[in-house]
User: Fold this.
Amino acid sequence: MMDRGLAHVLGNRVDQPVFDALKNRHGEQWLVELTVIAHYFGVLSGVVNAFEVPAPPDGDKLPG
Assistant:
């Protein structure tokens, strides 16, 4: 799954063998839902960044 997500983000394409393997394992509906969720996350991230929404003070902290 990570291969598909990374390929999609970097090049907006997925190699056919990767697509076929995921389709055979999970089905078309799963692929559509995965794609929608990935794009939805991208839209939400864009809005949060555009309006510089801060993380909540009691939210999870990244290490480092």
